[in-house]
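Aggregate trends can hide what the representation actually does to any particular protein. In the encoding step, the backbone of a single protein was reduced to a row of integers, each denoting a local shape. The record that follows shows the chain in one-letter code together with its fold in token form.

***
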Amino acid sequence: MSSLVTIDDPADGRLADYVQLREVNLRRLLEEEHGLFIAEGDKVIRRAAEAGYEPRSFLLAPRWLDSLADVLERWPTTPVYVVTEELAEQVTGFHVHRGALASYRRRPPAELEELLGGQRIAIFDDIVDHTNVGAGFRAAAAMGVDAVLITPTCADPFYRRSIKVSMGTVFQVPWTRLTSWPEPLQVLKDHGFTVAALALTDNSITLDALTARHDEKLALIFGTEGHGLKPHVLDQSDLTVKIPMAPGVDSLNVASAAAVTFYATRP
């Protein structure tokens, strides 16, 4: 088994990866600097391991040592910090779900061209809510979307909250963060993708009309929760698409809209 280390001081420097997990700006800087992400809960810890991510350390309440023993045995030299759930809360700044956390090393981002071999790509543009990003990735994984692209201002899919909401499915879907936007849309078009933006415009077609086209390759763009997609993004799209609503309802939450669209457009 990995090296077990009992810790009873919340200020112990070995716990630095887990400090103040709710402080988004602090965490962003720390995780970028050290190239790490935090997995919360036994299922997510296990899914990160199954996806081949390498752990930096584990932070576990004693009751998880047996059930996660097979995961810990894969990395016998990785430290396992054994703490009480009360101490974990002191370190992280919140009640840790089930008292199980792990710090994993991130991988270098994929190049855009590596992700263009499938039939459906989702693009999340400027979605700043980590819950929506995680739910969007979960829908993409469930409905067999081949890859996800996120724009430069989109929230981090590997932030703890995004990972937790996705139930670890962020580890299953190939993705990358675009370094510019919306210029890469031309690259998608050059690779045969029809670019469809989900937006309410005067010339939007319905989702049913989109599926009736039977486009061989689709790139589906979903915009920020408040203002949707910007005009210059719509101008670069081949068409705009709307999901018809019942009277009195304007729109769906972006993650819900993504799930509906992914289901409707499945091959």
Q: What stands out?
A: The two ends are 44 Å apart (CA to CA).
